[in-house]
Amino acid sequence: MILFLNACQYNSSELSDLIVVNLRDGYVDSEINISKEISKIEYVPLELTDDNESMIASILDCCVTNEYVFIVSSKQGGVFQFNRQGRFVRKFAKTGNGPGETQQILSVSADENKSLLYVSELFSTSVYRFDGSFVKKVVSSRGFSYQYLIKDDLMAEIGAEYVPINVPGMFGMGVFSLNGDTIEIKNDFIDSTLTPVEETGLKSVYGIYSKDGLLCSVESNDTIFFLSSSGIKPMYFLKMDNSKESKSNSLSINNQELLPNSFSIFDYFETHQSFYVRAIFNNKMYLFQYDKSTKKTSREISETDPNELVTYNRTMAGIGLRNVIDNGLPIWARKSYPAQNIIVQYYTASEILYLKDNKTVVKELPSVCKDMNENSNPLVVIYHLK
Fold it and tell me: Which InterPro entries match (predicted)?
């Protein structure tokens, strides 16, 4: 079978390993049972201290280690550190211009073996010990939207969003050492026959850990790539068959319109047995499961309106798969940590209250949610995989 992969060229060995997930047809409409892959659910309500030092409006990014949960807020600066039970430990990397201070944090990742946290901003990476002490800051000439540690100061990066791809220093995605050495870089997210190069840029970028690396994607390409110490290779091809006009829109940084009958990938994650995808189609959220052993794809359509839920939480944690373990919150993952054998999701308090009133989605809230109010801190949910 020959696939047209958005003008990206791959060699025969790469194509032979490429997994095709058909979102347009070839799936089975059935309830997806993710609960069979989960051994335990760990609910971590983040403590709100009396002095409000630990107050978090919503979560921009988080990093879960064996002992800690590190949080970057979408509104408050700095890094919030909690233990795995949700007790507030400290806040560090606070906003400022001095040593160890930050301006606008984009992402965080950890080296568990060295007890180091990597705090990434648009053009720099600051390194801290788990006790909050500052180690160093490394400035980069590349602007990125996300940066995550793979191992040993080796970083997977996705280029800055909404910046013309032809601006000097711009890139699509790449693997780099922290000191600036390039392992591999990918820049061919361009089709000048559809969109002028000066209007072309990255949008809706996403990245999540997979074993020994990071799965990454951009809106203008139907392929999900695997970034590792070995470089970049295509991993999943999401067969959406969107129109030419839709493809043009996905390339343009000046056009945000999602056309009717077009898929837009929202997020995805892997387990040992499956690959899961959420995609928006005609103002509804579609959930797909690709079974790695049977190579079959199943599909569900959420009853929850994404346009409504996104006002409570931009990651829309409340749209997920049925939870038959405790009949509580829907199951989905925004973070994955293969070394710990866990996947992670996070809810805002306002989203929890919305779901509480929506009995068709949640039959029973976890006990830790019973006393939540609109001023409560977010809830982190850790799913332990079998």
Answer: 6-blade_b-propeller_TolB-like, Quino_amine_DH_bsu
What class does CATH assign to 17-385?
A: mainly beta
Backbone angles phi, psi at 59, to 5 degrees: -100, 125
156 burial (CB, 10 Å; 0-12 / 13-18 / 19+) is buried
**Taking the CB of residue 51, how many other CB atoms lie within 10 A of it?**
7
Rounded to 10 degrees, what is the CA torsion of 362, 368, 370, 371?
Answer: -140
Task: Characterize 314-351 residue by residue with b for buried, 16 or more Cβ atoms within 10 angstroms of its Cβ, and e for exposed.
Answer: ebbbbbbbbbeeeebbbbbbbbbbbeeebbbbbbbbbb
Rounded CA-CA distance 283/304 in Å is: 10
Cβ–Cβ under 8 Å, residues 110 and 65:
yes
Query: Distance between CA 316 and CA 310 in Å, rounded?
Result: 6
**How does pLDDT run across 301-318, given as a tens digit for each residue?**
999 999 999 999 999 999
Question: Residues 123-169: pLDDT tens digits?
Answer: 999 999 999 999 999 999 999 999 999 999 999 999 999 999 999 98
Tell me the C-alpha distance between 158 and 122, whole Å: 11
Alpha-carbon distance of 13 to 35, in angstroms, equals: 34
Spatial distance between the Cα atoms of 67 and 112, rounded to a whole number of angstroms = 10
Q: How confident is the model at residue 14 (pLDDT cuts 50, 70, 90)?
A: low
**Positive/negative CA dihedral, 303, 306, 310, 313:** positive
pLDDT of residue 16: 64
Task: Name every residue whose Cβ is closer than 8 Å to that of residue 25 and which is 6 or more positions away in sequence.
Answer: none
Residue 5 has pLDDT above 80, yes or no: no
Q: Which residues pair with 175 in a beta bridge?
A: 156, 184
Between residues 5 and 40, the one the model is more confident about: 40
